[in-house]
Here is the input.
Amino acid sequence: MAAIGGSIEELTIAGRGFAVTADNDVPRKFGGTENEVMANGNGTSRVIQTRVAPSLPGWTVACDDVRRDQEFLQDIANAGQFVACTVTYAGGQVYQGDAVVTGELVFNPQAATCSFDLGGTGTFTPQQ
Here is the structure.
């Protein structure tokens, strides 16, 4: 079966769904460990593992003033608490995890979009 790419269909944050702009390309970092190989003086090497948080940077979503979407996202950021998030990809795969709005939250009134990043805890996993 061929890999399916394309537009992200939906982002859900704390139960609220957001339509993702069709050209939005959000890199996904599961979280877990990153490895670094360090040399020893005797010619051998060792592996240094560093825990890293999951992240989904670079979101641009439809943002409706009537629904007060920007305020909803800002409240998530202000609370500083991780909330349940899901991402539905073009091929139908759904990934889930706990995340919080990070970085700058910006509303663009001309395009009716909000831009922001998500940072998580634990790992992002496929929904069963």
Notes: The radius of gyration is 18 Å. Strands lie at 10-13, 16-19, 32-39, 45-52, 55-62, 83-88, 94-108, 113-126. The first helix runs from residue 69 to 79. The longest strand covers residues 94-108.
